[in-house]
Amino acid sequence: MSEISLHGGDPSVLRRLNAAATLRALRGGGEPTLSELAGQVGLSRPTTEGVLAELAERGLVAEVPPRSGTGLGRPARRYRFCSEAGYALGIDVDAHWVQVFAADLDGRVAGSHRVDLGVGWEPPERLAAVRGAVKTCLSRAGVERSALWAVGAGTPGVVDLDGTVRFCTVVPGWQGLNLGRELGRSFGCPVYVENDANLAAMAERWRGAARDVDDVLCVLAGLHTGTGALIGGRLHRGRWGGAGEVGMLPELGLRDTMAALTGTPPPPADGGPEGVLAAARRDDPEAVALVERLAARMSRGIAAMALALDPEVIVVGGPLTRAGDRLVDELRRRVLPLCLGPVRLEASALGEEAVGIGAVRLALDRIDENLFRVD
Fold first, then answer.
1. Which pLDDT belongs to residue 5?
2. In a 3-state reduction of DSSP, which class is residue 345?
């Protein structure tokens, strides 16, 4: 960052540029001294000191107490980013559960809460459960609702930018609901809603099996199987938020995937799909055969997405991975030979927390956009 004046620019723009650069440097971690920070950002010490004073007034930066045993003389002043200045909330609203995560501005989870839901619940009952879960999560985390800077929420279905669920077959009464507006009644900060598979892809790149990989395909295997894609490190939503919904084509084998476990022949154990998955973990031969048959069915759709996007990593998550390694191993055996490059196919490292963690990442991304904007 340079202190050279912008041509015809407002000096306040330069101050905001300097503040954004200094804040970004501190967000990198550590506790630099004033001189170290000035050198890193490319500003003079007096300018850096002024920027730090402004950021401290906003609660974003704090001076670190002097370290003991540092020798004679006055210790150098050190500074840190105040990750506790605000919080992000991530909400996963599934057909079967709601999970909530509260995290500070560095993404450290301060608290979480999960509540199981009835699949047939109507929107008012489901939304009431979401609000109750949020209240419990914030209480456990010791976070005031007023400290929230942004909320991210994930849900099955195609989601418009305004938070309306435009298409959904998994959650009763969900289609046409403006989930962003309904959730927004409970918060004094912006609420952002996104498709669950998209958020799972973001989470896996952030903290999961595709960490720091730019081209990722995430397969969320559940009642139906959805896919989310990152291209060049950025979420690919498509024009209307429907990118990755190849499961709409029945011949690609991604519709009614959970129900396929209880088809013909009948499952080897009671409990429907859950019973089949549990039996497959115990190496029951009939259950293993059902899981492998399902993998063969799903492989068509996953391979089609992989051929269209040419990802570096395919991550498979969702409830169907409860069969242990069976489903992922069989998908790996069937999908990878159809790909034209050295693609890796991995099991999710985040399990059923992936969508909620991705919702936190979505909220943090929006917070960062505001923190570093200069207009």
1. 41
2. strand
